[in-house]
């Protein structure tokens, strides 16, 4: 049989671009059992350089996909930030060393690992599910049906994408047509998908020009393994230690000699890593740094701060990652924002594709993530300005003082760590009963908390009970389950919950979409884990206790830390780990209302 | 070329038996670059059952070989012990729940995983170094030279072992002659090696008969996932929850019907797992337990408590593990004692084979491990007696009271956790200057302690700086390295240490045998990690601080906890993680004396 030179296929989701946003989406969808295809125009994955900073919240997300362990093994951790300022004697001196991450998080540090290694976490996970990136492929055209009925019907494939192979093998099709239910354009700052639909980028370009070099340093600088913000009279410089013995230097360029006057773009032929290091040397004086034999990677950029005017086309095509937002890399936000875009989108697409949720759920992606990107740009403007500004000295009283910089650095902690992200009120973020769990902020991620397992007193982390498996986690804060009176209330609740949750699942399999975890306030000495109704203990490991562990070192105060009412509260955590809603035992009807606002009642 | 039917080879170390003691030895020696061969008579590794309890200290040892992470992923953890006693109403009732492990350790719990899975940790590690178990092979004869000169010369191969294949392939040799420098007989309770040299087992057999069943239970017993000691008027029973949902029951048999009157051995044809479960049911009343579809494993045994009269033949052949000691399995000691035997032996053999240490070093193996086995037996006698005794009740005032049992349980905590092991004074355990680090007990393992890295403020665990790589770890407690005065002392020390350590290594490569870690008492705000002499910071990660981490959660008080004098102390940790000796800065000559007592000065 001759091989056809035109291949055509149907997929649930086509992802264009296998950078951090693309592989996050692909892995999440594949784990959810969605038929997904991912293509990229690069013949190989990124080998070095590019984005490398990972925030605490992103590490929590990696953990929810089972990828944090390997990430932490490979990455470098940043615990402390050192600030260097001009000294009286000329050159710089250590002004302060402070904690890098001050927000409450499971991973209280930033971490660095080159983009290729991070992509590999996902690529290897995808491979274990039989999925690889088709590359090098570039999209040639994209069309979406204009028929409203077709657009509403999730069984059809209303998006048609023509892909062209950049290196077709002998006898293989060089053109491929993919009919998709949904398309994700995760194709970077110069996104083809975005341009195909004339989506504009809103915002502007700054005047700040920076250079970046990656290498293994030989230096007498004592903070070379700490994150450093260096303000000198000879320019600013930032040090980001990386995996192994490598470091990255961000170097402010004082003049515009590397910018092409006509295009306004940087011209990489006018400057190189040696010149960048030479500029850094002036900032670092009196410390010295040797010229390395090789530079692992380098670049120059002008900070641009822009957000896409829209994130989706007819709820069928979505853009994500750098395709939606560009900003300065120094606060280490880029890759994090990108991965969290598709972490937010994937579960929504999965539920819609599986016929469990209404198409309207998809609108919450742009609603939640575009707002976040706008906040990011606003933050970045302030941060970049402070960072690129001249330091305050005797001669320059208008400069940025150390106190100003420090204050800004700490104020933005919740933002830069990623744990402060707060999605606004929407069908999936309903804060009607917030008062019953006042410190489990609806719209924010469920914070880490140690609990102990009722059956075996083993300390566990609540976030480990929230894997990104596209299921809603239903936390039953059951109160004191050793009390007979409370037991009666819990049994009544179990009956109501059973009848509600059954509405949204196929053939009665509640556990397909809902994972129930019980959290009792009984003590480890008294508790009988098997006194709970069967619905609330699908396995012995699903009953947890708000008590300290037998060593007295972990756990305790969960109800208090979460502000949870001890008479009994149900907390719904979205599949992405964000608190969706809360209801006291006697308002269980509002749980039905919550799910009915975006889930489909099954026959 | 025709295949010879008689194969002959030379190896540094031949290990007979690939149970826990054998694979521990093999992996450790292979990691040290020793030419090692391991044989076993079983055609396959153990699939289920057998020993399964792992102590906290053994987990620390696994971690030192890089194997704890996988172990912890696969094993079940026991944090709490529940005690059940006869109730007034007949049957049993919960009397108490207490902490399982009360000793200070990095892994404050016991863990269970079947022996085959534990062996696999080592087998896979060995495989990554190209070593597999030759099986099924049985030894046919063993001979050791009687020439004193030959026995002293570590370049020769004075032990000749004839091995016979139990399943030779077509055309393969069925007999193999191995000439070895050293042989380890890790061939179990019925050790062929032990018998070949007429080594006797000293001790006796008790009257206690116990049955063991492994299965996945369906029960209403609320402590099925805790370790349980159940004393009922219908006999004693112990529950050990295992990996997955499995449990092991240890069941006391009230009569001798399963014992063959003539041989005194148990006869497994007279009883089976169903009968054992039936006995357990009587102890567990009023709780019920269903008969499972299958039993994973079961056995019956009579407790015997014996220790081999000697552990070695002419410092050339050593026996280890069950070949040296037998005792009751209920305190979960067996596999731990076995693995720790060869953990103790391997580094000594490695240093002798490499020509770095004197043959006399090998005598410390029997000295240290036989004493331990005797202590183990003494403990086991008391424990087994208490456990097998009748409970004290109204009718039986002579029985064992809950308080007595509890007290014994807690008294033996240091022993059962394994962290209390204290090797007596010997050339490798020299306590002359104990006073300068009074809580780093010479002869005990270095306890866990969080420190922070000077260069990047990352919290680390000191035990992670003590991998089992056959190197001595030299901890330089350098005092306040920010003080100029102290710096002068440190530089002087570095000069002396350099001239001492160079004596024991080939061609000046100190790091081949010694790994130097500096621990400064400067603060993370002030420290300059690169102010230390080069010898004391072979890499930036080797300088540690006694300070709390930036989150205020880990570290601090190391000097205090260890009782270390802040004016400066050198601590030598043996390659197996036990403190070898201690010296203040001005007694550095005693470090030379320590090493000279068992190491060879190289030309």
TrEMBL record, chains A, B:
SUPFAM superfamilies: FAD-linked reductases, C-terminal domain, FAD/NAD(P)-binding domain, Thioredoxin-like. InterPro entries: FAD-bd, FAD/NAD-bd_sf, Phe_hydrox_C_dim_dom, PHOX_C_sf, RIFMO-like, Thioredoxin-like_sf. Keywords: FAD, Flavoprotein, Oxidoreductase. The keyword Magnesium does not apply. Coiled coil: none annotated. Residues 11-379 form the FAD-binding domain. GO terms for molecular function: FAD binding; oxidoreductase activity, acting on paired donors, with incorporation or reduction of molecular oxygen, NAD(P)H as one donor, and incorporation of one atom of oxygen. Residues 421-602 form the Phenol hydroxylase-like C-terminal dimerisation domain. PANTHER family: 2-MONOOXYGENASE, PUTATIVE (AFU_ORTHOLOGUE AFUA_1G13660)-RELATED, TRK SYSTEM POTASSIUM UPTAKE PROTEIN. Belongs to the PheA/TfdB FAD monooxygenase family. This is FAD binding domain-containing protein. The lineage of its organism: Eukaryota, Fungi, Dikarya, Basidiomycota, Agaricomycotina.
């Amino acid at each position: 049989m001759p091989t056809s030179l035109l291949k055509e296929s149907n997929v649930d989701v086509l992802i264009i671009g296998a950078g951090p946003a693309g592989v996050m989406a692909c892995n999440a969808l594949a784990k959810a059992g969605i038929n997904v295809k991912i293509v990229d125009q690069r013949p190989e994955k990124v080998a070095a350089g590019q984005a490398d900073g990972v925030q605490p919240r992103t590490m929590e997300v990696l953990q929810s996909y089972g990828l944090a362990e390997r990430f932490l093994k490979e990455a470098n951790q940043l615990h402390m930030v050192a600030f260097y300022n001009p000294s009286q004697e000329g050159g710089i001196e250590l002004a302060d060393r402070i904690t890098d991450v001050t927000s409450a998080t499971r991973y209280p540090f930033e971490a660095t690992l080159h983009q290729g290694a991070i992509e590999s976490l996902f690529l290897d996970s995808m491979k274990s599910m039989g999925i690889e990136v088709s590359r090098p492929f570039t999209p040639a055209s994209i069309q979406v049906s204009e028929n409203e009925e077709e657009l509403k019907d999730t069984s059809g494939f209303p998006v048609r994408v023509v892909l062209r192979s950049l290196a077709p093998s002998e006898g293989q099709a060089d053109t491929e047509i993919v009919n998709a239910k949904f398309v994700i354009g995760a194709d970077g700052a110069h996104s083809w998908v975005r341009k195909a639909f004339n989506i504009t980028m809103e915002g502007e370009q700054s005047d700040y020009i920076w250079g970046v070099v990656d290498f293994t340093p030989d230096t007498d600088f004592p903070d070379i393994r700490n994150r450093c913000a260096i303000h000198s009279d000879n320019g600013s410089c930032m040090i980001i230690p990386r995996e192994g013995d490598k470091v990255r230097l961000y170097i402010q360029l004082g003049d515009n000699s590397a910018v092409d006057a006509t295009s306004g773009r940087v011209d990489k032929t006018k400057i190189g890593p040696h010149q960048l290091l030479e500029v850094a040397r002036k900032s670092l004086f009196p410390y010295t740094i040797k010229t390395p034999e090789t530079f692992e990677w380098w670049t120059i950029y002008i900070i641009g701060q822009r957000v896409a005017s829209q994130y989706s086309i007819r709820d069928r095509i979505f853009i994500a990652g750098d395709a939606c937002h560009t900003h300065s890399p120094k606060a280490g936000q880029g890759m994090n924002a990108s991965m969290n875009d598709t972490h937010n989108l994937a579960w929504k697409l999965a539920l819609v594709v599986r016929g469990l949720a209404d198409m309207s759920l998809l609108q919450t992606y742009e609603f939640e993530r575009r707002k976040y990107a706008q906040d990011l740009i606003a933050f970045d403007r302030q941060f970049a300005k402070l960072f690129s500004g001249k330091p305050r000295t005797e001669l320059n009283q208008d400069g940025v003082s150390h106190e100003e910089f420090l204050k800004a650095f700490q104020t933005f902690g919740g933002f830069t760590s990623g744990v402060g992200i707060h999605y606004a009120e929407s069908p999936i973020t309903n804060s009607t009963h917030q008062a019953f769990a006042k410190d489990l902020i609806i719209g924010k991620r469920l914070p880490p908390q140690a609990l102990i397992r009722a059956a075996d007193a083993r300390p566990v982390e609540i976030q480990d009970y929230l894997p990104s498996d596209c299921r809603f986690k239903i936390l039953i804060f059951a109160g004191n389950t050793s009390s007979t009176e409370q037991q009666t209330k819990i049994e009544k609740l179990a009956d109501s919950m059973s009848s509600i949750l059954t509405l949204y699942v196929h053939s009665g399999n509640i556990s397909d979409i809902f994972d129930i975890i019980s959290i009792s306030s009984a003590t480890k000495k008294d508790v009988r884990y098997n006194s709970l109704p069967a619905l609330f203990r699908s396995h012995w490991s699903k009953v947890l206790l708000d008590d300290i562990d037998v060593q007295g070192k972990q756990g305790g105060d969960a109800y208090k830390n979460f502000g949870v009412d001890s008479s009994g509260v149900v907390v719904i955590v979205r599949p992405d780990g964000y608190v969706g809603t809360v209801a006291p035992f006697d308002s269980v009807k509002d749980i039905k209302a919550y799910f009915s606002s975006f889930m489909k009642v099954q026959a």
